[in-house]
Write a structure and sequence with these properties.
Chain A: Keywords: ATP synthesis, CF(0), Hydrogen ion transport, Ion transport, Membrane, Mitochondrion, Mitochondrion inner membrane, Transmembrane, Transmembrane helix, Transport. The complex is a heterodimer of chains A (227) and B (252). Chain A contains seven helices and two strands. Chain A has helices at 20-25, 42-59, 70-87, 99-120, 122-127, 139-185, 187-226; strands spanning 13-14, 17-18. In chain B, a hairpin with a 3-residue loop joins strand 1 and strand 2 (55-56). Chain B contains seven helices and two strands. Classes of the chains: A mainly alpha (227), B mainly alpha (252).
Chain lengths: 227, 252
């Protein structure tokens, strides 16, 4: 089983059958069903606490119309965190390294926020194009810039998540390769590289959680502007 | 929703005839709500025992009779060596990545495991404690209500004494009233009789005075002028004699 550096980013197939659906749905079994019990295990209590904290953080500053998005945003953050964290294990495939998947999350949700804004309060959402207090000379340029920034948002959302995770995974692979190769040549340098790898892995764990959170946070901010 | 409909109809059909029992058994697969499973058995206090964090203790117990204490370890070592030597598992860069993520996970669990576990336990215990508090408050208030009710019952027993006292009060009031009225009546009657007496006395006095006046008048009218002159001359001579006697006495 020799691996190239990019095998981890290939969509998994088994005898020609794409396993992407399995890769996306299997993390679901990790979270226990709430069940008949009122007071369950430690894990359920922790997950419930996290969801409660997250919902409060995201939806406290939002007006009531945006609260309809609570279910989709909390499930999205849980999904992304699980996928990212599971991807750090060896020999796993991380679906969020695929740009197609991240764009599939980002574009519809962003477009939904824009359409909601345009439909419910068109004046206000168009007014977001121009920040307050700009000098009159800069207005045309600023409108153009703000429009471009509006349309770049979904791209930024998707690419941010993809790039962070792909870069992280690639770095881990590269440094692991370096340590592996150096082990037979210069063991001491290999040890140093291993230490670097350890620290990098710590960073990647943090990045995995933060990127998921940031994705959903930005979406909630766009929603706040428009709802 | 249909399962509920079937449940209800099955329950009502249970009583009638031979199909009843069959329906109950047949619909048992549709019992998805927890009502049929209460009360739930309690969750175990601790999770299953594991050795080295992943291998369940049951494996070691399973192998103990045949291979003793070192059995599972030999099995593990053998498996690993087999996979490495036959190159079923190839050592490559992923091995190092696996080692590093494994180190991160073990470090995390060892360092933060107990505190996270106690935090989760605290969450659950707080939830249970809140419910328990509600229950305790309800029980306390109900006990207090029972005590109050007993006190009220004791109070009711003294009711007859209260009524006796009240009855005495009322009788006394009536008696007082009666006596007052009697007194008043006596006074009125006396007043009327006194009036009659006074009237009679007045009559008496008037008659007396009238008679006296008449007597005086007749006496005065019977005195003739000759008699009056004589009496006046007598008085004058008497007075002169008295004067002379007094002067003589004063001179001596």
């Amino acid at each position: 089983m020799t691996l190239s550096l990019f095998d981890q980013f290939m969509s998994p197939t088994l005898l020609g059958i794409p396993l992407m659906a399995l890769a996306l749905t299997l993390p679901w079994i990790l979270f226990f069903k709430p069940g008949n019990r009122w007071s369950s295990s430690r894990f359920s209590a922790l997950v419930a606490q996290f969801l409660k904290w997250f919902t409060k953080e995201i939806f406290q500053p939002m007006s009531l119309g945006g609260h309809k998005w609570a279910l989709i945003l909390t499930s999205l953050v849980l999904f992304l965190i699980t996928l990212n964290m599971l991807g750090l294990l060896p020999y796993t495939f991380t679906p969020t390294t695929q740009l197609s998947m991240n764009m599939a999350f980002a574009v519809p949700l962003w477009l939904a926020t824009v359409i909601i804004g345009m439909r419910n309060q068109p004046n206000l959402s168009l007014a977001h194009m121009l920040p307050e207090g700009t000098p009159a000379l800069l207005i045309p340029i600023l409108i153009v810039i703000e429009t471009i920034s509006l349309f770049i948002r979904p791209l930024a959302l998707g690419v941010r998540l993809t790039a962070n995770l792909t870069a992280g995974h690639l770095l881990i692979q590269l440094i692991a390769t370096a340590a592996y190769v150096l082990m037979s040549i210069m063991p001491v340098v290999a040890i140093l590289t291993s230490v670097l790898l350890f620290l990098l892995t710590l960073l990647e764990v943090a990045v995995a959680m933060i990127q998921a959170y940031v994705f959903v946070l930005l979406l909630s901010l766009y929603l706040q502007e428009n709802v | 929703m249909l399962s509920r409909l079937i449940l209800v109809s099955a329950n009502s059909l249970k009583g009638c005839g031979p199909i009843g029992a069959g329906l109950v058994q047949a619909s048992r697969s549709l019992h998805t709500s927890p009502q049929s499973l209460a009360p739930l058995p309690p969750l175990p206090e601790t999770g299953g025992k594991v050795r080295h964090g992943i291998f369940p203790e049951e494996l070691f117990q399973l192998l103990y009779p045949k291979t003793g204490v070192t059995g599972p370890y030999m099995l593990g070592t053998g498996l690993i060596i087999y996979m490495l030597s036959k190159e079923i598992y190839v050592i490559n860069h992923e091995t190092f990545a696996a080692a590093s993520i494994g180190a991160v996970i073990i470090y995390g669990v060892k360092k933060f495991g107990p505190s996270v576990a106690s935090y989760a336990d605290k969450l659950n215990e707080d939830k249970i404690a809140k419910a328990q508090e509600v229950k305790d408050i309800a029980i306390a208030s109900l006990t207090e209500a029972i005590e109050d009710e007993k006190k009220e019952q004791w109070r009711v027993e003294g009711r007859s004494m209260l009524f006796d006292a009240k009855r005495n009060n009322v009788a006394m009031l009536l008696e007082t009233n009666y006596r007052e009225r009697l007194h008043m009546v006596t006074n009125e009657v006396k007043r009327r009789l006194d009036y009659q007496i006074a009237l009679q006395n007045l009559h008496h006095r008037l008659e007396q005075e009238h008679m006296v006046n008449w007597v005086e008048k007749s006496v005065i009218s019977s005195i003739t002028p000759q008699q009056e002159k004589e009496s006046i001359a007598k008085c004058i001579t008497d007075l002169k004699a008295l004067a002379k006697a007094t002067q003589a006495r004063a001179g001596v």
